[in-house]
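ASSEMBLY PREDICTION REQUEST
Request ID: AP-0331
Submitted by: J.K., bench scientist
Number of chains: three
Total residues: 1284
Priority: normal
Notes: Please return the full assembly, not individual chains.
Input sequences:
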Amino acid sequence: MRFKFSLMAIGLEVALIVLFALYVQYETEQKNVQQLNTTKPSDMDRFLELYPLFQDVHVMIFIGFGFLMTFLKKYGFSSVGINLFIAALGLQWGTIVQGILHSHGKEIHIGIKNMINADFSTATVLISFGAVLGKTSPIQMLIMTIIEIAVFSGNEYLVGEIFQASDIGASMTIHAFGAYFGLAVALVLYRSGLRRHENQESEYHSELFAMIGTLFLWMFWPSFNSAIADAGDKQYRAIVNTYFSLAACVLTAFAVSSFVGERGKLEMTHIQNATLAGGVAVGTCADMEIHPYSSMIIGGLAGIISVLGFKYLDPVFATNLRIQDTCGVHNLHGLPGVVGGLAGIVAVAMGASDKSTIAMQAAALGSSIGTAVVGGLMTGLILKLPIWGQPPDQYCFDDSVYWEVPRSIEHDHHLHENGSHNQLEPEV
Amino acid sequence: MRFKFSLMAIGLEVALIVLFALYVQYETEQKNVQQLNTTKPSDMDRFLELYPLFQDVHVMIFIGFGFLMTFLKKYGFSSVGINLFIAALGLQWGTIVQGILHSHGKEIHIGIKNMINADFSTATVLISFGAVLGKTSPIQMLIMTIIEIAVFSGNEYLVGEIFQASDIGASMTIHAFGAYFGLAVALVLYRSGLRRHENQESEYHSELFAMIGTLFLWMFWPSFNSAIADAGDKQYRAIVNTYFSLAACVLTAFAVSSFVGERGKLEMTHIQNATLAGGVAVGTCADMEIHPYSSMIIGGLAGIISVLGFKYLDPVFATNLRIQDTCGVHNLHGLPGVVGGLAGIVAVAMGASDKSTIAMQAAALGSSIGTAVVGGLMTGLILKLPIWGQPPDQYCFDDSVYWEVPRSIEHDHHLHENGSHNQLEPEV
Amino acid sequence: MRFKFSLMAIGLEVALIVLFALYVQYETEQKNVQQLNTTKPSDMDRFLELYPLFQDVHVMIFIGFGFLMTFLKKYGFSSVGINLFIAALGLQWGTIVQGILHSHGKEIHIGIKNMINADFSTATVLISFGAVLGKTSPIQMLIMTIIEIAVFSGNEYLVGEIFQASDIGASMTIHAFGAYFGLAVALVLYRSGLRRHENQESEYHSELFAMIGTLFLWMFWPSFNSAIADAGDKQYRAIVNTYFSLAACVLTAFAVSSFVGERGKLEMTHIQNATLAGGVAVGTCADMEIHPYSSMIIGGLAGIISVLGFKYLDPVFATNLRIQDTCGVHNLHGLPGVVGGLAGIVAVAMGASDKSTIAMQAAALGSSIGTAVVGGLMTGLILKLPIWGQPPDQYCFDDSVYWEVPRSIEHDHHLHENGSHNQLEPEV
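STATUS: Completed
Returned structure:
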């Protein structure tokens, strides 16, 4: 049935509107009457104060993740387009699921932190999307978004409310979780025919488009790690630590990329991804009093590990483990996320936090990875149900399966040699 | 005379400098002496508080509108370049015209809202620019900018000051106005030779450039709709309503695009434009207490209507009505702007505003469309005067008429087959 | 030794971490205890208030400078990649050098202004990078970054602390300094074989990528010129003056580009660069009470001078003076920076500042240019040492020397005809 995607998307939107009508309310200033004569800022002041940080996160989600994935020569429409679809769906669904969990089933009053957290929940799915990029249909992504955000919200509630662990930049709950969830899905969806697929290459300009994504992620990562931190010292430290961690990470990523490259050459994939690992890895302890130089050590190590992952782990994953990780999310989010979780444990052990304990932090890391793997495997099985359809191997990493593409892609870029993609295409 | 454009641009800048010397002043803190001992924020505090929202709007104007129009394979320089020219001219002229109207001829003190409104006034022209994109010369755009901003400011004054209608996100005064103004100009400038012009196609990468514009417009639309809202609850609601309206709009736009597409395929044009219709349509009532779920309904409907407009109305406009709407601004700004005006009437009827009445809102919608059509027709006639020159049909949608283009455009992209565009080109 | 770059980068990062451990501390709210009962904003409030301006500057550094340089058809990876490397290294090194100078050797407490100034110091190097773009190796850029930031910080300390001159937007200390430093380096590195190099051309889409850089620089320049201005009137004026100066500059740049162009055609190089000259030129007196119309005069003149520089000075520099200025930084930063310095002298002479004198301003301008030229010449000599290696002339402006490039660059774009770049390449 060719209208399946359309009907599911419309149906979901109607359901979301009903859920919003039932559960969601504005925040109102009336709640703050008692503050009128104080100098303490009201919720509304805080709303505008955090709004620029929210917008930075927003840019990371839609431009950052979207364009980071445009590196494939024939899959840019889907990267940036389905990214938009997932994020728009996810932020509505995330508002509901997280809101209900945190309000314990009562009304949800939309404040700036709800909006930031809604964007965060979509980040998890977009990370997983990177692992399966080019190998799934829009309808499968729609289903994965719904399931993954529910599982993510459950784990995030567990980590934050039950374990009371620190994870302000979400190294564990978003990055490690999103990566291992996506890898588990990719394992279930493994198809040997996709090994070294001719479409799985980049073009000169597609690499430049991807750098737009990289840079917006890189620049705004301090906002990501600090957006929901406590006002004052903690928020300040989250910004400063992330700023310096990322800077250190760039130097080590460049150094190692050239070190392991053929005749010292740099590789764009490393620069696009590993330069961001410092933002991931410093996430858990970003708001702690760890000293700027410690964040630089964390960032520097993350950059090294990430490049080495791309160089030496990716081939092992693709062949031996039968996990085809299109964007290498394991190296950008998985490994650095684990580094972040471990750094958090070390920081807590050294007394950088007065709120959390080693046990809580370890439980949070274990729970994030465990939930992700189990949730991802189950989601993969659901996505594999024949009812959703899957593109045949020869049409993977190819926009023309789901999009009208301009004629010029064939004519001008010589990307196709026999035009065969106009025949026998599966329906969306 | 080949120096006509240069001399007019320089002359205009000199005139603007004289007008600024006569009418424009800094805002000074001295005016706020009486507030020194209060906790009420001074104008200067409010300046910095709104500055991030201003910058978001700024990005929408220059990157958003500029790149949204780069989808044509051979007209990217003009799209993003003339967009910059129009906006830079328009913001100076808009500062003067709007400032004098609102200060009733007295001195204009430049505050952050003047800067936001100056940017807004350019948005109107840029929307109209989309309707005539590729078919007019820079000199014609210069003239249209001067005329349209004057007419726009008059209508905006009428709507806001005389009718006292609500239109915080300017669904009527900017979006519907800009669209119908541009369509009226396009009607007057109609040329049958441009039907199905070979240059009016996109390229694979030009579509990705356009997505940069789409996403920055999409992300920052909450700032657009809230930037000049009253501080506190209203500004907060304008942000929240727009955020959710846009998210809902994405789902319906994707759904309908696939629904009406051949074999369920998505179309980039729809995704680039219709996903933004929710921002337009929620504009008029964005700051009202309409409840988030209502904004999702408005956004969802706007996404549906916009895609249907692209699919079924555009061909009718181009052939039967003799209106060639290059960017489809009718579907992105025109129809959703009318939806926004009607939604405003319904919201006021249901008591969501204590300031406006149904009659005021209806008068505002009628005035915006009426003024736009009359102003656009007159402007079209002025632009058609032989003195300005017009590119002959075979050179339309082609940067090489007004720009030095790199040789590679012919050589590498095979966009030209006989190089004929190097001969017989009209002067700028 | 092919690992030279890697080892130097890693070694530098380790050294920076040690320096941070020794000299850098968090800023703490405890210092502001006495303010708790006042309405004066604490440092932390000011941190978040200025954070959006910092992020604007951040975008200018990484996206703005990075993409502005992607106009060359085969050098986009290096432009945006090495830009990232330089900036990430420079901001760490700049934090240390500027911090130690301003704290007179004591501990550095990282506040938002330190972060803004760290970004500023990288801008200087990135401007110089534009002059030598395509002709140097990553290792040479690493060395130039270290030297130039030290010299820059010395001059900036001289201008600000010793001369007590005004230069809020850094027309002299960043723009003129960076340009003349880079030109001096380019003079020393002159190679006649690079004259009219076939790789020194643009492509249609590379020009559009460059416009991304231009527009983000253009839009956020008001933040650049105001980010470290005194709170209140001065910061406000720096924003307003820059906003209008840039707008005026666009009109004159377009006018003159068409005026001097063949048959009235516009040139992308002018639009990408000269439209920004207004931001540079108004920098020195941006926070002074010069009236908006004066900033428009400054911006308008800068736009004219900049285009004329590109058209008539560049060829003279390249041939007669033996200075190959790849990006034309002399026309975007050098000349407009001098205009800015002179405008500052005039403004002070007319009483627009109560802090500075004509002599101080003149000393600042002379010092900035003098230090830059001497520093640049010495740096050029160091960069010319055979130990660092230099790409042979035939491989200049070519990413494939230092980067793995996708096969498609040859196949799809026909950029190479004989594939010779795969042989005999020098190591990084």
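REVIEWER COMMENTS: The radius of gyration of chain B is 21 Å.
SIGN-OFF: pending second reviewer
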